[in-house]
Design brief:
The chain contains 10 helices and 22 strands. With about 425 residues, it is an alpha/beta fold. The chain has one domain. The longest helix has 17 residues.
Length: about 425
């Protein structure tokens, strides 16, 4: 199943000795791995049985380029939509090709670099902390072909008051790329990170990993926008580890891809840590958008809140499967999980499976999910006031998503995202 993903191909990507050794160790595991099937509970309702890894091959070194080679301009309109920024990283096929940072922040010790150009000391104790704590076959594949990626590190006590934007672009017909982002906020630091993931209309596999390390009393706002081309497969992990009194405000927007799967996980490891996970997703055509979430409480007085809202039309499908885990240490924790889905046409479908695992006896916990069409009473109300049916549907769908759009950490992106939703509503496959 992994004929093209060999140890020699992993070694050929080059880079520092420590990174090559890490890749080779992962590649040596690939042939003995048990690959997932829809019979596995965590892959239930997925399309994993359609994935043939032999259809893809890792990008060759001459395509990825040598580490440290700057070969891209400064982000173009995708970066401009995020507004004023403190820094920018452009990542092509998993390797940084452009980066810039406000000089005043650089003087305070804020670091932006390609993982392949960092010293081992820069990443020791951080790289792999999150992904190694939640491994599967695809995180091993990712590690085996990790060519580079974005490191954003904010020292203790430093506040970054404008967003740092990371743009990922993956291309190559029949190829696979493995973007990686590692964000490290030390004690009392604050930052906002905006990531955009895109690809052209090509058969391409994206195996991404995002690690968010938020130390004691650090505060991170994070936004991920997935806008892949219609033939791209994505299988990605985004995982955060939170220290004492740390907060994470994480938002995900998923609009593209053929099959796009995201595991969004948060480990609340420190007392009074707080995690808020939001998502908006909209599938049309033959798309499938697949979300698996974990709110993992492992300390007292922690709090997590999750709100995922999605819509599907044409023959698109969505899956949401979430677990709230309250470990014995999570006394006085408070957790909530909500998933809402609109099914806009007869051929579309949505699955919603919330789960609780409670091992503490002094907690507050709730979960809720809904799947259904647009409310007839809402439609009738608008139409009786002279609003045409198509316009009424558009207003209802935008209203459904607006409470999440209003909470995005970068307000300037709400307008472009609304326009994309409108285009999908007005389209019928």
């Amino acid at each position: 199943m992994v004929t093209n993903f060999t140890t020699d191909a992993a070694r050929a990507l080059g880079g520092p000795d420590w990174l090559i050794a890490r890749r080779v160790a992962a590649a040596e595991q690939l042939q003995s791995l048990t690959w997932p099937t829809p019979a596995d509970e965590i892959w239930r309702y997925s399309r994993i049985d359609e994935l043939d890894l032999d259809r893809y091959q890792p990008l060759k070194p001459e395509v990825v380029g040598e580490p440290g080679t700057e070969r891209a301009p400064g982000g173009g309109p995708l970066a401009a939509e995020a507004g004023e920024r403190a820094g920018l990283v452009v990542v092509r096929d998993g390797r940084v090709v452009h980066h810039e940072l406000d000089e005043s922040l650089e003087a305070k010790g804020v670091m932006i670099c390609d993982l392949a150009m960092c010293t081992e000391d820069d990443v020791r104790g951080a790289l792999g902390t999150c992904s190694d704590a939640s491994p599967d076959a695809f995180t091993v594949l990712h590690d085996a072909f990790l060519a580079g990626g974005a490191l954003v590190k904010v020292p203790a006590g430093v506040v970054v008051d404008r967003p740092i934007v990371v743009l990922h672009w993956s291309e190559g017909q029949g190829c696979a790329s493995f973007p990686h982002t590692l964000v490290v906020l030390e004690e009392h630091a604050q930052a906002t990170i905006v990531e955009r993931f895109g690809s052209p209309n090509q058969f391409h596999l994206v195996g991404g990993v995002v690690e968010l390390l938020v130390a004691d009393d650090a505060h991170l706002r994070y936004l991920s926008l997935q806008e892949h081309g219609p033939k791209t497969w994505q299988i990605a992990l985004q995982r955060a580890h939170l220290g004492r009194d740390a907060t994470l405000r994480s938002s995900a927007v998923a609009l593209g891809g053929d099959y796009a799967r995201l595991r969004s996980e948060s480990l609340l490891a420190g007392e009074s840590a707080e995690s808020n996970l939001l998502a908006v997703y909209f599938g049309d055509g033959q798309q499938m958008l697949d979300f698996r979430t974990l709110q993992d409480h492992d300390a007292p007085r922690t709090r997590s809140d999750l709100l995922f809202k999605g819509a599907v039309e044409d023959d698109a499908r969505s899956v949401y499967s979430g677990l709230v885990r309250l470990r014995p240490t999570a006394q006085k924790a408070n957790a909530s999980q909500t998933n809402r889905n609109l099914v806009l046409t007869e051929g579309a479908s949505a699955e919603s499976i919330p789960n609780l695992e409670i091992e503490a006896n002094d907690v507050r916990c709730s979960h809720a999910s809904t799947v259904g069409p647009i409310d007839d009473d809402q439609r009738y109300y608008l139409e009786t006031r002279g609003i045409p049916p198509a316009e009424a549907e558009r207003l209802i769908v935008l209203g459904f998503f607006d409470d999440v759009f209003h909470r995005l950490p970068v307000a300037s992106l709400a307008g472009p995202l609304r326009r994309t939703v409108i285009e999908k509503v007005e389209h019928r496959g």
